[in-house]
Amino acid sequence: MPTDAKEKTVTRESGKQAEDQKKKQQQEETTDKATRKEQKKKRREEKKKNKKPRRRIFPIWLRIIVVLLLAAIALALGLIVGYGVIGDGNPMDALEWETWQHIIDIVVKEG
């Protein structure tokens, strides 16, 4: 029986040691994670500080004007193609005010 008691105390001690080692590993992992996060924050801050300010060669206001111009050109080309080619009319008549006044008169009278 004395050997059994010794074995039990040895296994208890080794079990406690294993638990202590697990606790230490968990603490190290949490501290490692915390230090990694801090390092990432530091790296991000350094990148922000070292980052050159962005200089736009093509400013936003100019982009808006260009897009509006392109939209107007596309509208005009669509009118010309639709009225002249598909509608069998004179393509340049699509851009005259009298043509649109006539179309408006037709729509309003029938509606």
SS content category: mainly alpha
Count of domains = 2
Shape: elongated
Helix content: over 70%
Average pLDDT number: 82
Low-confidence stretches: none
**Biggest sheet details:** none
Strand content: under 5%
Tally of helical runs = 3
Number of strand segments: 0
Kindly provide the radius of gyration, computed on alpha-carbon positions and rounded to a whole number of angstroms. 40 Å
First-to-last CA distance: 110 Å
Secondary-structure element pattern, one letter each: HHH
Regarding quaternary structure, how should these chains be classified? Answer: single chain
What's this, in brief?
By secondary structure, the protein is mainly α.
What would you say this structure looks like, in words?
This protein has helices at residues 2-50, 60-86, 97-110. By secondary structure, it is mainly alpha-helical. The chain has two domains: 1-51; 60-110, no CATH class. The protein starts with a helix and ends with a helix. The relative contact order is 0.04.
Features:
mainly alpha, 0% strand, 111 residues, 2 domains, elongated
Detail the topology: elements first, then pairings.
Elements: H1 2-50, H2 60-86, H3 97-110
